Amino acid sequence: MSFKLTLLLLLLLVLSHHADSGSIVKFLPGFEGPLPFELETGYIGIGEEEEVQMFYYFIKSERNPKEDPLLIWLNGGPGCSSLEGLLFENGPVALKFEVYNGSLVSLVSTTYSWTQVANIIYLDQPVGAGFSYSRTPLGKTSDTNEAKMIHQFLQKWLSKHPQFSSNPFYVTGDSYSGKTIPALVQEISKGNYICCKPPINLQGYVLGNPVTYPEFEENYRIPFSHGMALISDELYESLKRNCKGNYGNVDQRNRMCLTHVEEYHKSTDKINTQHILLPDCDNKSHTEKTSPDCYYYLYYLIECWANNNRVREALHVKKVYANFGVRLLMI
């Protein structure tokens, strides 16, 4: 009886270790042949009871994983899955842009992947984004709290992947992560001196199109529009003269400023605010109603791909809690 109990405990220990250490993915539905890079997916439990389960995709550098930098990538939103960064922005595979016919969405290799020179952890955060979930109901959160949770994730992830502890480490992301990343960098820096051994080898951070101070950013749209020849010199000079740099919360008594701001909006309301060189289209939602000619059709395709059962099985997503969600970036 004692021998059987010992065997059972050893088996449970092995299974537990296997579940926590991540799973290697060699094939992805929609991609022809084996993956030409090393992909690991898994969950890291956060909290005293590990009630929060954060899902990640880890891709090793294609050059020199032992020495190349280690990056964590955080998408914005808030609430975008990091799969968006992997498949839309800087990963080694991307969605093939084609009209969806009900079959599996195709993936193709890219030539611009950051994984050519860096190891990257793509993290689904906050909880509820992508495949991350919580076993218990969560209350209100904040950017500061999210930074602390991501810091805990990194500590646990590195404890399970100690071979990357000495690699130069960078925090990277875009959009709303312009608020989360500075807080996370501060949390890591503080932890390196106060609580956490071994320290994370933090070297810096990278922000793409970050949200920082929305009120100021709205104001900067007008000089940007002028610089990109979207509005005339005359209108720009009138806006500067009458609004004195404040184009958002305009004093209702300042009729000249209000009139010129209205003219500005008339001149730019057909412009794609996410990317002025792309055609404007219906970006109210990423659904099948969105025209395939529209850039935002990609958001519909990524949902079709990620919600496919074969894809979730290949990624080792837990069936009960998987709740993929992609939201448009706040840029």
From TrEMBL:
Keywords: Signal. PANTHER family: SERINE CARBOXYPEPTIDASE-LIKE 10-RELATED, SERINE PROTEASE FAMILY S10 SERINE CARBOXYPEPTIDASE. It comes from the Eukaryota. The keyword Metal-binding does not apply. InterPro entries: AB_hydrolase_fold, Peptidase_S10. Residues 1-21 form the signal peptide. Belongs to the peptidase S10 family. This is Serine carboxypeptidase. The keyword Signal applies.
